[in-house]
Amino acid sequence: MSRSTRFDTKKVNSELVTLTYGTLVAQMVKDLENPDDVSKQLDRIGYNMGIRLIEDYLSKTGSGRCLDLKDTADKIQTAFRMYLGVQPNVVNWSPAGDEFSFSLDSNPLTELVELPDDLKQLKYCNIICGAIRGALEMVQLDVQSWVVQDQLKGDPNTEIRVKFIRRLEDAMPAGED
Amino acid sequence: MVIYCIYIVSKSGGLIFNYDHNVPKVENERKFTYPLDIRLNYENKKVSVHFGQRDGINVGHVLTAVNGMPVTGRQLDDGRDAKDVLESKESYPLTLKFSRPKMTTNEKIFLASMFYPLFAIASQLSPEPKCSGIEVLKGDTFKLHCFQTLTGVKIMTVVDRNQIGAEVFLKRVYELYADYALKNPFYSLEMPIRCELFDTNLKAMLEQIDKSGIASI
Questions:
Q1: If B147 and its partner were Cys, which of A118, B167, B170, B195 is the partner (CB 3.0–4.6 Å)?
Q2: Residues B155, B144 contacting (CB under 8 angstroms)
Q3: Contact at 8 Å (CB) between B69 and B77?
Q4: Residues B7, B18 contacting (CB under 8 angstroms)
Q5: CATH code reported for the domain at B3-23+104-212
Q6: Residues A130-144, buried b or exposed e (16+ Cβ, 10 A)?
Q7: B25: Cβ contacts below 8 Å, ≥ 6 apart
Q8: Contacts for B191-194 with beta carbons within 8 Å, 24 or more apart?
Q9: B70 touches A at CB < 8 Å
Q10: What is the pLDDT of residue A7?
Q11: Chain A residues in contact with B133 (beta carbon < 8 A)
Q12: Rounded to an integer, what distance in angstroms lies between the CA atom of residue B48 and that of residue B40?
């Protein structure tokens, strides 16, 4: 049972993810009525996934602490490949180097999806933003993340923006601060 | 592979998991006549051997049974006080059973939370900046290995002094924690890990190690 084989055995068809996620969102749209609430809830679900998923990522990659945002972007890129099977491009760095975007040509979450007209303001992929925020918070990085462009809304690709806010010094575990 | 026990301490310093693995049980039973040739002492709610080590009954061992009747704290199961029984001449000869004291869950929680400040102090004592805390603590009979994840969870194991490869083992425990504790939707973070899948997988890994060594995982 070596490390690499365990990776492979857990691979599943991406359509399974697409469909399950679609069911979740559809159900939430039914339950909540207001698309903004749905977006908010998706972000919350993503956050809760992120704070758990980070341990999985760290235990499987054994990567160390990031000391600059470029490093962080690289690592999240790896995470995209691990968990969604896509490799986004890191683009649109802000001059201060504290903001960047992930640009996805194809997004497995939206593969089979069309948004009806009355749900145009729904942020369908908000779960990814939440996951990024949650995961980074666990490694003491406070960030903001939101969807700038969405293929579901006619944009050429999906763009997820990440903005660094601060390092959470007080949450730093002993031996690291 | 000699792994004595595994502890997981949460980010805030609470013990969230502990597991004892193949700690040999030391038990000795012997018939005693009046007067008792070992000195017993009552402390920490236990009757323990104070002086006079013999026949495998060592200083520090605690009294667990009198004439086959279990002793809880200093009280026999029939309600008599162990001290009274041991002091009265009429009750002899007595068969007393001694064993190595076992840590209670409370004591484990106490020790685990004590390690937390020790770890922090160690990282501050360092002459170099950016020092990790304690990674290995060595005693004459054991080695304690500690692995702190980037999120602040500490995974510790107590192993035999000559055991190598404990770091690899800790990383594997971390993987199991990420898989079977955190992916369980009914497990909430920072709470004690009561996930059967985690237990079974950990046990399976320990068995594998016992059979074919640390390199097999």
A1: B170
A2: no
A3: yes
A4: yes
A5: 3.30.450.70
A6: bbbbbbbbbbbbebe
A7: B99, B100
A8: B191/B16, B192/B15, B192/B16, B192/B17, B193/B8, B193/B16, B193/B17
A9: no
A10: 47
A11: 174-175
A12: 6
Q: How far apart, in Å, are the Cα atoms of B59 and each of A88, A131, A154, B12?
A: 65, 55, 79, 36
Strands B143-148 and B136-138: antiparallel
Whether residue B76 contacts residue B66, with contact meaning beta carbons closer than 8 Å, is answered with: yes
Nearest to B151 among A60, A139, A175 (CB): A139
Locate the domains of chain A by residue range: 14-167
Predicted model pTM: 0.87
From the first residue on, what is the mean pLDDT of each consecutive set of 10 residues in chain A (177 residues)?
46 88 94 92 95 94 90 94 92 94 92 89 94 94 94 92 90 66
Nearest beta carbon to residue B174 from set A52, A59, A139: A59
Q: Give the gap in angstroms from C-alpha B103 to the nearest C-alpha of chain A.
A: 27
**Helix (H) / strand (E) containing A66:** none
Q: Are B143 and B166 in contact (CB under 8 A)?
A: yes
Instruction: Return the sign of the alpha-carbon dihedral for residues A87, A168, A53, B213.
Output: positive
Model ipTM? 0.86
CA distance B11 to A174: 10
Distances (CA, A) of B80 to A83, B12, B108: 63, 43, 29
- Which CATH number is B27-99 given? 2.30.42.40
Provide the pLDDT for residue A175: 62
Residue A35's Cβ-side half-sphere holds a number of Cα atoms within 13 Å equal to 12
The residue extents of the domains of chain B are 3-23+104-212, 27-99
Task: Name residue, tokens 């595994």.
Answer: B6
CATH class of the domain defined by A14-167: alpha beta
Separation in Å, CA of A52 to nearest CA in chain B? 6
> Order of strands, edge to edge, in the sheet holding A89-91?
A89-91, A99-104, A158-167, A141-149
Q: Given this model, what pLDDT does residue B81 score?
A: 86
- Report the gap between the CA of A85 and the closest CA in chain B (Å): 19
